[in-house]
Amino acid sequence: MTGAKPYSDLTYELIRGAYDTHIHAAPDGYERCVNYQEAAEEALALGMRGLVFKDHHFPTAHICWLLNRVYPQLHCIGSLTISHSCGGFNAEAVLRAAAIGIRIVWFPTLETAHFQALFGQTDYLAHLRTGAAPLPLAVLDQQGRILPEVMAVLETIRQLDLALGLGHLSPKETAAVVRAARGIGVEKIKLSHAQSRLAPPPEQQQELARQGVYLCYTFLNCLPGLGNLQPQELADLIRKVGPERVVLNTDAGQTTAPRPAELMLMTIEALLGCGIQATDIATMIRTNPAALFG
After folding, report:
1. Is residue 1 in some structural domain?
2. Domain interval for residue 122
3. pLDDT band, residue 125 (cuts 50/70/90)
4. 163-165: strand order across its sheet
5. At residue 95, does pLDDT exceed 90?
């Protein structure tokens, strides 16, 4: 990102003050194209406001604590993913991670039956397969009811005013968890990868938006080799849900994709080219993330 500007002036204007609410960086359980320090410095160089760091297995709050002291102009946000490595649905792990600064709890990702069924053999996700496939972490019992340990985690999220990330749950699981979370007063909920095969169908996404869920879309699946989504299809999804309930992020960090700051620029430029208004993009990368994370 040096030399002649490869993007429009409007794209560079829009990225100032933006958040990227889903990135991966090294050190991590998998090889990444960028480390935490590089991701922070590249975001700062563009005038971005904040980053949410995600690890599929471990809390990221410790590194974010340091980044926020080295780069006080940037809001680096830690998270915890529910996984076997943190004891599964372990409310105590959430409580302790919140004490050191996490602001979002992601429900299981690689360790859901839904993810393993859809992407267990996908070539471009081969880097996520290390050793034997973990046993899926369930959220529902045989009668379709939320498990008690899942409710305990949701209650901890509510008490601490954390954001809930729905992870890679199935559409049925997603609907049940949102219903349970809303029922006890969880206010901040986001659905990741809403543009991918993991996500519920558009009609269910519209219903989730009506329930106050933020739908998180990424340009990642529009890149060669990382899915077959066309930019215009992504723009159409955003229009169906409405930008007031959409968050744009990158899910960057994979070695096969551009680095996070670069991918965010690509996202903005592409959506402008598809007719998404600049004011709506600002809502999706500034206003809505700030509502989720403060």
Report:
1. no
2. 9-127+135-293
3. very low
4. 19-23, 50-53, 75-81, 102-106, 163-165, 188-191, 214-217, 246-248
5. yes
Q: Which amino acid is at 46?
A: L
Q: Whats the size of the chain, residue-wise?
A: 294
Q: How far apart are CA 106 and CA 11, in angstroms?
A: 30
Q: In which band, very low, low, confident or very high, does the pLDDT at 131 lie, cut at 50, 70 and 90? A: low
- Say which CATH number the domain at 140 has: 3.20.20.140
Q: Tell me which residue of 199, 282, 274 sits closest to 239, measured CA to CA.
A: 274
- Structural domain includes residue 2: no
Domain total of the chain: 1
Q: Examine residue 266 and state whether it is found in any structural domain, yes or no.
A: yes
Contact 42, 35 (CB under 8 A): no
Nearest CA to 237 out of 215, 258, 257 is that of 215
What is the structure's pLDDT at 206?
Answer: 96
Note whether residue 3 is domain-resident. Answer: no
Lowest mean pLDDT among 1-15, 70-84, 109-123, 174-188: 109-123
Q: Is 46 within 8 Å of 265 (Cβ atoms)?
A: yes
Residue pLDDT, tens place only, 256-285: 899 999 999 999 999 999 999 999 999 999
Q: How many CB atoms lie within 10 A of CB 67?
A: 23
Is the per-residue pLDDT at 118 higher than 90? no
